[in-house]
Amino acid sequence: MGFRCGIVGLPNVGKSTLFNALTETQAAQAANYPFCTIEPNVGNVGVPDPRLDELARIAGSQKIIPTQLGFVDIAGLVRGASKGEGLGNQFLGNIREVDAIVHVLRCFENDDIQHVDNKIDPLSDAETVETELMLSDLESLEKRVPAAQKKAAQGDKEAKIIASVLGQALELLREGKPARLTQPKDEEEARVFQQAQLITAKPVLYVCNVEEESAAEGNAFSARVFGKAQAEGANALIVSAAIESELVGMDLEERLVFLEEMGLHETGLARVIRSGYELLHLITFFTVGPKEARAWTVHKGAKAPDAAGEIHSDMQRGFIRAETIAYDDYIALGGETGAKDAGKLRQEGKEYVVQDGDVLHFKFNV
User: What is the 3-state secondary structure (H, E, C) of 23-79?
Assistant: First the structure.
């Protein structure tokens, strides 16, 4: 299962610098001019999870394999993108393909780095991007909803569902609100809404890119963004892309010293990755043994056969049961043997809903 977060924002806000640091590569060319990123760069990054290291230590695993989350560095957007201005059509196509949006906002002043509007105003920047996304969705729905309403009037059941849920989204967009505020009333409406692939229906994380001195506490610019996020029921966090790019070349000990000097407990990137993971309502389960300790990803609410399918389709098809140990029990009882002796290893069937942190071993037959 692949999950991808698209990194978006106006030109020169720090998207590519952040992407480079995330993937610890220079895959995206970071330069001080618009449209430096012409093709979307894609990088998979390990999701930081100290639980995995603990499990590997107890099991004596030779390899540690974290679960991964994909990040896509998408070309900077400008006004008129919804009408094809700049690289608008390409931008909108790229963003339509990701699962969530990481919206980078410039919250620092630097005369050496040009801003497309010659001013530093993260809320204005956010509005520019969001307006173009809403205009794109609005144009799409203003064609689709009337067509669905016409069919619905003729008795088409599917068209009635489409007209209802997408009609609600259209009204929100006309009010200048994103489609993600739409509230499908049942599973059928939720299915139709998801299939519509509206850009503004995607979950959003605001990343405030601040100067080094503000990396710990933020600044007046980031405070305004946090206010916006709170009003929308969205999430926001503070990152200094400049600091993160410096950390890339350091070993672990150097990083820890540097972070302490900056008043930071962990890298901003670790928080971005975890926040992206949470944004998509994902959870982690583990498989542990002497050869490897590995983390896997499923959606919250996934059942045991779905989790088995993340490892191999044969496991899902021939699923018999899942031997399950809760993470806390595995740690407290010193591993699988201790958990089994204490009666904490459970046999779960097809209807078992996987819990975050479960250590699983699947029995299957094909």
Answer: HCCCCCCCCCCCCCCCCCEEEEEECCCHHHHHHHHHHCCCEEECCEEEEEECCCCCC
Which DSSP helix (H) or strand (E) runs through 359? strand 359-364
Tell me how far apart the alpha carbons of residues 270 and 213 are, in angstroms, rounded to a whole number: 19
> How many angstroms separate the CA atoms of 246 and 234, rounded?
29
Element (H, E) at 152: helix 122-153
- DSSP H or E segment with residue 170: helix 157-174
* Chunked mean pLDDT (size 10), the chain, 366 residues: 81 84 58 43 84 96 91 70 51 82 91 72 91 89 93 91 94 92 90 91 93 92 94 88 84 85 84 85 95 95 96 96 97 96 97 97 94
Residue of 30, 12, 13 whose CA lies nearest to 21? 30
Cβ atoms 238, 269 nearer than 8 A: no
What is the DSSP pairing of strand 359-364 with strand 41-46?
Answer: unpaired
- Residue type (1 letter), 159: A
Q: Where are the alpha helices (DSSP H) in 262-321?
A: 268-279, 304-311, 313-317
Q: What is the pTM of this model?
A: 0.80
Q: Are 6 and 101 in contact (CB under 8 A)?
A: yes
Count how many Cα atoms sit within 13 Å of the Cα of residue 118 in the half-sphere of its side chain. 0
Q: Which of 103, 87, 109, 88 is nearest to 38 (CA)?
A: 87
Residue 89: which H helix or E strand, with range?
A: helix 88-96
